[in-house]
Amino acid sequence: MERNSIVCYNRNMSDILLIGKDLPESLDLAEGFTSQEKGVFAVCKTDAEVSDFESNNIFASVWNRPSAISARSLIIKAETKFQNLTDFVLVFDAYQFGTEFELDRTEDIAKAIDTMIAGYQYFINELLYRLEQRKEEVTITFLVKNYPSKYEVAVNGNKNVNLHPISNIVNSAMNAFTALAEGISTIISDRSYISVLLAKCDPSNELYNDDKQIGTWIAQSIEAIRGMKNKQSVKQAATWVKVGGKVPTGFGLFK
Question: What pTM did the predictor assign?
Fold first, then answer.
């Protein structure tokens, strides 16, 4: 693993650190980014898998979610690999988490909190600390792939018999991730070097099952934000955008 970290890629395009969805599940998403000429540093479950994905500008490292030290190490490894690491993408895939935490069992609560809540909190805290040191222009993207909760199914019904509601713990974690994303979107008012993209994808979205297209859209949206004439406003940063839709970049509309 160390031999990989000493190779530093210096290219003109910006590169991405992708967390929240491990390889190989995140491979399509990563390939969507690389299709837009972005290098990707992702996460995998074990050290043995690190070298399995090192092709086409996709690299990986392990990430121990309930550890601030691991989050810090992940960021440094990604920076070592890519000199132009300016984009950070955090993904919450409710359906995927729902397959791991299908039932609301007492014995799963601690692991669920570490996996779906604490890990993101540790990472974002370490990232903000690092960005405060760097003070370089970056974009932080929060992607939420929604899935219906038991409450939504009970109140609104389920028109698609193939959609089974996620457990309460996954739904709670999804809400926590959403709150984290919205909270971070407001900090751009006093951290001018940070821009934020909030993106949601519902099961009814035609791109929901096409992570490669989602990755392509995110990469293009990041560049749209980067190309804005004026600095992104808090209103723009705090607006949830439907995946596949147009990112609010108008410099007069939200002032």
Answer: 0.91
